[in-house]
Give the backbone structure.
Amino acid sequence: MSDNEAPPATTRNAYQEDIIKILVATDNHIGYLERDPIRGQDSINTFKEILQLAVKHDVDMILLGGDLFHENRPSRDCLYQVMALLREYTLGDKPVQLELLSNPDDGRAEGYSFPAVNYEDPNLNVAIPVFSIHGNHDDPQGAGPQGALCALDVLSVSGLINYMGKFDLPLSSASNPNPVESDSGISIRPVLLRKGQTRLGLYGVGNVKDARMHFELRSNRVRMYMPSDKEDWFNVLVVHQNRVPHPPTPAVPEGLFDDCIDLVVWGHEHDCRIVPEPVAGRPYHVTQPGSSVATSLGEGEGLEKHVALLQIHNKEFELKPLPLRTVRPFMLGDIFLAEAAEEEGFDVTDQIAVGKFLRARVNALIDQANQLWDERNAHAVEEGEEELPRMLPLVRLKVDTTNVPAMSNPIRFGQEFTGRIANPRDVLSFHRSKARSAASRTATSADQPELSIDDPDLTTSEKLAKVRVQTLVQEYLAAQELQVLGEAGMNEAIRMFVEKDDGWAIQTHVSGALRALMKGVQENGEVDEEELDDVLVKLKEQHNQEYLEKAKMGKTGKGKGKEKASAPADSDADSMLMDVDGGEEDGSDFDEPAPPPKKKKAAPAKKAAPAKKGRGKKAVASESEEVIELDEDDDEEDEAPPKVTKKTNRAAVLSQPAKKAPAKKTTTTKGKASSSGQGTLSFAPSGRSSTRTAATRARGKMANVVEVDSD
């Protein structure tokens, strides 16, 4: 097989009892334009179709790659419909064929006894488990007693989905390019599943700022907890990051992941590229399902929308695209008006002639969209599916108006197509190819600063298409010559207020900045009134520069503690370099290379006490019981327990490992754990003796423990 070919389909002749079937979808953006009278229900209708496809193809599970919701705080109507659909299509009496081998308590809500994996709860009847990570639209926010929360947390505690990929990002390491060894960076804990002879490891990483994610990867600070026999597992990594650069936003290189990964499911990018693509120099492939609803009228959204049916047998897999029929057809056209006028023989200054020409082009795009819909319907009817009523298409005509003196109102133009297309207000998009002339700039003032949308060469529609709140705020603040507050911090606070609906963002930033300034003035001792302005300016510039340096690391929060800087990480090494088992036995859950090897007694293997069964939900269970020691291989030396750091906006629901031993609790809680034949997996990060001791005590009470190491 060449590097440019997709892996061949090898699961067709395998036993169905050994094939894991997964429906993969990303970027559902439920709630997008929910107040639009025409397109308001598009996202929820397509999500309903995705769940229906899961039932139709009898999948074992559904895997979502982030951005389930379009808003960080979805409306009550939106949340209500999603919960109703999940209850309708994913709960039922169908037995789950996937045996959970990892610890069902990993990631559960702190302070509650129900497991994190919903079908392990005896009080729930789950037919199709749903696993999901968060994206950049529905990421955790806030700093309450439970840490940062998002809409997926609500669905998780309600037992409708299994939320994974949520982790701690310590503030102290966000701005430190040379973090100390005790700062573990990003730790990825898997969900380990088995069906017959096929074993699957799911590794989820929720959305992180791309600059921060790139930094963590290049600095070898992404640790994956993997079974020691990881080569026998099919490992799937789910991420939600920029795959290609979108200036000024950077991207995460697709070649920085570990070689033990077999398939990367990439969310966030909306163009559909389901066919697995090889990565140069890496053994894994990347699949990009794309969005299930068009959230912009760009070129990438014009591709036909699909979800993926992933079938896994041992180390082989097959991906089959499944077209989505409830997605509106989208037609995109592009013309250069001056050249078209020469070819068609009309005057570009004649608004009537130009309007007639544009109407003809839009009508042609509408006819193409309707024809495409009819072809899809005819093909579906041939396969025995019902015919769907025709939907109003999305049409966008991009018009290059270079060398054209003036254009008509695009909104008034689109009103002529009301009832024929779904987006009459933005059917036309005017743009010019020539660069803005620098000579057009004039002197600016603080009250009326020159903004990027004030270009006289731009039409009104071009200005509306170009406007960005963050850009306007940045340009406006730069013209104010602020004396106390830094522009960068205020810009970020306003962005959080607008985009994330964080009502306390501005007040929190202003209060913190004022406290920092007062502290800086006090450190200078007595300051004359004449020198006070100069001191404030210097402190403001200093704080602004510190903020910008921290922003480069992908995080703008300030750490509250000084860390010792270690040697710089090797940026050329593999970002997820995994070690070989050292074979050292120390009585802990993981092998950790320490300078003085300690001798500890091995805990005797005990048979786990039987737990209560929940409505016969365990269709697959291990017939024998075995206890396998858990290993962790790491090149780092044992460190003292790190200081507890403040959780960020992406703080995990997981509690600090030193406070509990999840593996022990799974065997002692009656009525809450799975059956005795169910395997569990206990994790413990390196350098934390309290957790290691707790895991040692719990190991003797576990059954079917899978050996794991951390890389």
User: Anything to note?
Assistant: The radius of gyration is 28 Å. The chain is about 25% helix and 15% strand. The first strand starts at residue 20 and ends at 25. The chain has a mean pLDDT of 77.
